[in-house]
Amino acid sequence: MLSPVPPALRDAVERVGRADIMVGIPSFRNAATIGHVARAAQAGLVQYFPDLRPVLVNADAGSPDGTQRVVVETEPPDYVERILLVRPRNRLQRISLTYPEVDGVGGKGAALRTVFEVARALEVQALVVVDSDLRSILPEWIELLAGPILKGGFDFVSPLYARHKNDGTITNTVTYPLTRALYGLRIRQPIGGDFGVSGDLVDHYLQQEDWTPEVSRFGVDIWMTTSAIAGGFAVCQARLGAKVHDPKDPGADLGPMFSQVLSTILRLTERHADRWLQVRGSHDVPAYGFERVVEPPPLQIDFLRLLEEFHRGRLAQGEQWDRMLAPQTAEMVCELATDAGAAADRAARADAPRQPLEPGDFAFPDEAWARVVYDVCVAAHRRVLPLDRLVAALVPLYFGRVAGLLLEVRDLGGEQAEAVVERQARAFELAKSYLVSRWQEVAQEVAQAEGDGPAPGNAAT
Ligand SMILES: Nc1nc2c(ncn2[C@@H]2O[C@H](COP(=O)(O)OP(=O)(O)O)[C@@H](O)[C@H]2O)c(=O)[nH]1
Ligand SMILES: [Mg+2]
Predict the structure, then answer these.
(1) How far apart are CA 268 and CA 175, in angstroms?
(2) 275 plus 313 within the same structural domain
(3) Same domain for 270 and 362?
(4) Is residue 442 in some structural domain?
């Protein structure tokens, strides 16, 4: 049974009635940037889809900074109609809503749930969702993300961007290589935040009724991508050019987001084992849009902090590492944490503390990282620890891996840095047989234990 549209949304939906194409924008304190996003979206709707009934929906967290007012007051640019003499057949409708929390949790995912509900109620054929902190969005993005759905028969359009080599560390270290190795699809930005979704896929999302606290926050992007893949929907990518948005330093800002994304991935990996256990290798996912040569702005990284966090993680989480990792992997990461501590000490003692860390001061090999991630998938499957503790123990390891990866590419250009991410993705594919055999051992143990009598409960690694 589908849940009915919540009363808060009913008025807005009744006012609009029906729409063909919708742009949804989640927001939280984005007054400074959302006006540009709203203008680009409106221009894109008018310029590229003048015959369709368009609607723009902002789902805001009740931001005190006037985000919603900016959305409602931002007018579309008039150049399209003045110069191209395009006469849109339908007036563009704008809605800004304060979305309801999901079981007491409000976050990006809760906002998108409201967006999906409005899209379903309006019976749109294509929904485009874009982040509200984007600087680099252009009207064309609307065509790039909706075109494959409206004209190409695709259900899910995932973004392809030029990002700075230091940006997108959760993507580069986990969501890209793991999604690719598990499901065999080379989706380069599974949590990019800017997506195109068909009406059918919106229905599918809502039918899942899967709003855990993590999905209601930043787990929602990987949840959308993985649910589209596992549901057998047609997936493609769209080349959007550069992604420029509010910068985040991994060590300082990304811990909670990493936890929400990882909890969601681990839960879905368990749920969709039948979809990925048989998959070997990977293949390209078609990409729409002309390639662009763009140089995204640089993003500074606090290497010292990442190394210190990793090193401290050994003390704080060492016991968990022993439980969740295979003995060889645990031994390896403890040595790496010691290396990280030594590198951090050397850097902290250096006379010139600005950028004292050099490539070569610390390395975290691809194969070691692939083993860590796969061991954690298996540990989640065995229920060695509750998911939140498992993920908390993984956070310092992620900081260590990010430090290793970004130090390695520190002096490389964008293309060479990308080749390093590709090399890591191949390491994940190569190590997949390790994951599969460990995963299947768990099933055998359970079967054996059931045959022997009492259930194993929480078998330790
Ligand atoms: N409604 C709502 N939107 C949020 C919340 N947190 C983040 N967002 C939106 O989600 C999008 C992505 O967030 P951002 O912090 O830029 O994450 P990142 O770019 O993936 O690192 C932006 O449009 C934010 O405004 C929230 O708590 N509520
Ligand atoms: Mg952002």
Answers:
(1) 12
(2) no
(3) no
(4) yes
Interhelix angle 7-16/108-122, rounded to 10 degrees, is: 40
Instruction: Check if 308 has its Cβ closer than 6 Å to any atom of ligand 1.
Output: no
Atom of ligand 1 nearest to the CA of 191: 20
Is any ligand 1 atom within 6 A of the Cβ of residue 429? no
Q: What pLDDT is attached to residue 12? A: 85
Cβ–ligand 1 distance for 36 under 6 Å, the answer: no
For residue range 41-99, what is the model confidence (pLDDT) as tens digits? 999 999 999 999 999 999 999 999 999 999 999 998 888 888 888 788 888 999 999 98
Confirm or reject: Cβ of 27 under 6 Å from ligand 1: yes
Does the pTM exceed 0.85?
A: yes
pLDDT tens figures, 169-194: 999 999 999 999 999 999 999 999 99
Q: Are residues 85 and 112 in the same domain?
A: yes
Nearest CA to ligand 1 atom 10: 108
Is residue 458 a part of any domain in this protein? no
Claim to verify: residue 315 and residue 221 sit in the same structural domain: no
For residues 447-457, average pLDDT: 66
Neighbours of 255 (CB within 10 A): 16
Boundaries of domain holding 158: 7-288
Give the number of the atom of ligand 1 that is nearest the alpha carbon of residue 99. Answer: 1
Query: How many domains does the chain fold into?
Result: 2
Domain at 27, CATH number: 3.90.550.10
Ligand 1 and 113: CB distance under 6 A: no
